[in-house]
Amino acid sequence: MEKYNGKTYDDRHGGPFDRGAADSYYGRGPKPHFYRGATMLSDRIEKEDMTDEQLEAYYAGYRYNEDLGHYKEW
Predict the structure, then answer these.
(1) What is the pTM of this model?
(2) Helices (DSSP H) in the chain: which residue ranges?
């Protein structure tokens, strides 16, 4: 679990918060998605099929990493 802006988010690998943070880390723009199970090994859920809560978690993960300034060094 990860706390950000006074809220606690599930930060499991492949979940919405994790995928938002990963998109930021790799220098990608926000494109909400997550994986139902293991990343790349389970169904990928796209923005149009995400709940408001899942979208909030994705964007929170993205902002969290942006605030940290933790980016992949190529």
Answers:
(1) 0.95
(2) 16-25, 52-68
